Automatic annotation (TrEMBL):
Domain RNA polymerase sigma-70 region: 8-72
Gene Ontology biological-process annotations: DNA-templated transcription initiation
Protein name listed in UniProt: RNA polymerase sigma-70 factor, ECF subfamily
PANTHER family for this protein: RNA POLYMERASE ECF-TYPE SIGMA FACTO, RNA POLYMERASE SIGMA-70 FACTOR ECF SUBFAMILY
UniProt similarity note: Belongs to the sigma-70 factor family. ECF subfamily.
GO molecular function, one term: sigma factor activity
Alphabetic keyword roster: Sigma factor, Transcription, Transcription regulation
Amino acid sequence: MNLFEKIYSEYKYKVYFFVKKYIQKEEDTEDIVQDIFIHVWRHMDKTDQTPPESIIFKTCKQEVSKFYRRNKLLFTFSEEEILIEEEEVFDEDLYKEQISKVERLLNEFPQKTRDLFIQHKIENISYSQLAKENNLSKTAVSKQVNKILSFLKDNLHLLLIII
């Protein structure tokens, strides 16, 4: 597998979902993703010095901005604006309701499975470390965490920051 194929297979979904957050129409999203990977293909020689992820996501931002300019729409990637929007939209009652729903759903799993999930997703402990501490295989830890994730996604209408 050549370098471009490896980069494409590793980042295609990440790029797609990143662009999809900012572009609503499916055709536009696909066009932009294609443009991003064309750019990566053209500049493969520079990826030896810079991590591919930084090039890819910088290109994502540029291509999304270019799309907005072409269509004469206003858009920025300012973190301050994103924070302001999040603060304005934040509804504490809804948040508490969602947290309690997650807690209820988590209680449907055995304590050990819940602990693995919380340690991995909340405390950012790696699968390897959890496997060693709990005398399990990495695959077993991964399956347990992913089982809860799938269950939560199926049962929640809103994705939470925690997930």
